[in-house]
Structure formats: C-alpha cells, structure tokens
Specification:
Shape: globular
CATH topology of the largest domain: FAD/NAD(P)-binding domain
Structural class: alpha+beta
Number of domains: 3
Number of helices: 9
CATH superfamily of the largest domain: FAD/NAD(P)-binding domain
Largest sheet: 8 strands, mixed
CATH class of the largest domain: Alpha Beta
Oligomer: single chain
Order of helices and strands: EHEEHEHEHEEHEEEEHEEEHEEEHH
CATH architecture of the largest domain: 3-Layer(bba) Sandwich
C-alpha cells in the first residue's frame, strides 16, 4: 500500500484534509491533477465569513460559526509549523447596503437566522455614520451595513502554500500531475489509476471540487456539483485604508484591493466579461468613491463548486466503506474544521452532528 489515506484533490479542501490527517499521525498521500484542473483554490476571495451563511439551514450556520471560531488557533498552529504568515485578520466584516430597503431586508434575514439558532448569532446593524466610524472613506450612497463580529479574511494563496508545506513537513507525500481515470475497490484497498501511475490506499477521500461529479460514482457515491463563475478585479497596491473586508471589496496584506461579487451560470467557462467586471467596479466605487482613482492591474474568473442547494456534501460510501466525498464552496472558511473535526470522522470517529444530514441522498428524495 502506498498510504493509509489517499486524498484526491490538491486545492484548499483537499490540502486541509490531508494536512489534518498527517497532523493526526496518519500515512497520507495527496493526488493533485495539475494546472489543467479548474482551480477554485487560486481564484477565491479569501474570506473567513459567517454572516448570511446558513439562512434556512441552522446546522450549516452552526458549522460555519464553529469554523470561524476555530480559525485563530488553526492559523497560529499552521504558522508555527511552517513559518508562513497567513495574513489572517478577523476583526469583523461589513456587508455594505446601498439603500434603506436593502439594509432592512438584510437585517431581517440575519435576525431570522439568529432566531433559528436560539439567539446565538453575532451581528450588528449599523447606520451610515456607524459604518463611517469603522471605515471613514465610504461613499454617501452607503445607507448602512451589517457587521459580523466573527468575519475576517486571509491570503488564500498563503493558506494553500502553508497547508501543502505543513502536509509535507509532517511526512505526507504529494503526487502531482495526474487525472484519475479509475478507482477500484478490491482486496480491502482502493486502487486509483492515473495515466502515469497507480496508487493504493486503505481509504480514499474525494476532494476534487468539480471533478467529484465524475469520481464519486466510481466508489458508489454521488456528487451532483455544478460550476458557478465568479469574476475578480485586482488593483495596484495602495496605502492601507480598508481594515474590515466586505463581500465586494477587501484590501490584502500587500496593499492591493480585490473586488468581486458575481455569481454566474456560465458552464465551465472561467473567463471574464466586460459587463460583469464593469458592474463589480461600479458597485465597489459606490461603496468607496476613491476607487475611481486607482488602477486595475488584472482580472480573472474562477468556478465555484456548487451543489443543487448550495450546501456541502460530506458522505461515506455504503457500498465501498472507506471511500468519502467532501465538497463545498466555502473551502477557506471551513478549512479549520476540515483539518480538525472532519478528520476525526474520516479516521473512524462519529460524524459531526451539524453535518450529519449533508449527504447527496437529500437530492434524491422522491415525492409521494
């Protein structure tokens, strides 16, 4: 056997799981397809975000809150091991609203979520002047904002680098450049074939993002995920002025600004469009008028991994025990739990209560 565990997928979800397994003392291999894959991990916004997550699904809200609460310790431990500063800032996040109606709707949604959790859901509703106290350079069109005390942001590229470096420092083995063609379960092990090699492991975890759709049926599972495109603009570096991130604009540790908020059904096209980039820029400038004087230096599109209801899938195969599928579109926020509580389940412990219902079976319920 090459490893006790083989994690398929070298993005943030896969590397967080592989790092967590290696940290627990397991013998782990990580298989990454290569740069021909759609790399959501290299195209995301870098938010550690709670507010608004789990509307209508309290268990997901609790899972997300637990992840955010675990992030400071997770970050400290990963940096202590690797020396990589993740640029985590978790002093709260703002959801800017450009009308009183938008602010009222947002506040009502969050209050409903708070009530569904028995009052345990930290957020505040701020008027224009209160937002200006936190972020003095907002524009006059900002009616107010909701403020999530658990929210923050991190460098997604530094996180990915640290997870992979930590994984290898702990003895994990990376196999790069292989697209999985076949997974077979025989003689108590999983035999995974790529064009260049065959790997054998006692357990296999599918964390390949959009690739899980094809891989899951090979081990008796289902992952009906589809792409959802988001486009991002990145500015030149400027003097720090934005301490609190939002869903539309955040300032990175290097000083550049990241702008984005699009959600598009564009199939597997990860390109950009002038229409969406213009809309993103216009909204960002309404929030922060000084952006009109700042140069944009690059843009890109990236594909989110979305299930039919937007929630994660965490499931072990009934027909091939030891095979798991893990997929979500909040890999940054959930990385702290994917390297911790989720790993305990993958190693044979109880499945965390808050994700007990997140199997693909929920998409196949027949109406009677």
């Amino acid at each position: 056997m090459n490893a006790d565990y083989l994690v398929i997928g070298g993005g943030v979800v896969g590397t967080a799981i592989a790092y967590g397994l290696a940290l627990a003392g397991e013998r782990v291999a990580l298989l990454d397809e290569g740069d021909q894959a759609f790399r959501a991990a290299r195209g995301n916004f870098g938010l550690v975000w709670v507010q608004g997550k789990g509307a209508g699904t309290p268990s997901y809200a609790r899972w997300t809150m637990a992840a955010a609460q675990q992030w400071p310790q997770f970050s400290r431990e990963l940096t202590a091991l690797t020396g990589v500063d993740l640029e985590l800032s978790q002093i709260g996040g703002l959801h800017m609203c450009l009308s009183d109606h938008e602010l009222a709707e947002r506040a009502a949604m969050l209050e409903s979520l708070r009530q569904s959790l028995g009052g345990d859901y930290p957020f505040e509703v701020l008027d224009h002047n209160q937002v200006r106290e936190l972020s003095p350079l907002i524009g006059p069109e900002v009616a107010g904002a909701t403020f999530g005390t658990l929210d923050g942001h991190v460098s997604p590229l530094r996180l990915l680098r640290a997870l992979l470096q930590g994984f290898e420092q702990l003895g994990g083995i990376l196999h790069a450049g292989g697209k999985v063609e076949r997974i077979e379960h025989r003689d108590g092990a999983f035999h995974v074939s790529t064009p260049h090699q065959r790997l054998i492991a006692g357990r296999v975890i599918l964390a390949a993002g959009l690739g899980n759709r094809e891989l899951a049926p090979m081990v008796g599972l289902s992952a009906p995920v589809t792409p959802n495109r988001g486009q991002i603009l990145v500015s030149e570096r400027v003097q720090p002025f934005l301490r609190h991130p939002s869903l539309y604009v955040r300032q990175t540790g290097e000083g550049s600004l990241t702008l984005g908020d699009s959600k598009e059904d564009a199939g597997y096209d990860d390109g950009t469009t002038l229409e969406q980039l213009s809309r993103i820029a216009q909204r960002a400038m309404r929030c922060f008028p000084l952006l009109a004087q700042i140069n944009i230096v690059r843009t890109w599109g990236s594909l989110r991994v979305m299930s039919p209801d937007g929630l994660p899938i965490y499931e072990q195969s009934r027909t091939q025990p030891g095979a798991f599928v893990v997929t979500c579109h909040s890999g940054i926020t959930l990385a702290s739990l994917h390297a911790g509580a989720l790993v305990q389940w993958l190693r044979g412990g109880d499945k965390p209560t808050d994700i007990a219902g997140f199997t693909a079976e929920r998409f196949h319920v027949q109406a009677h």
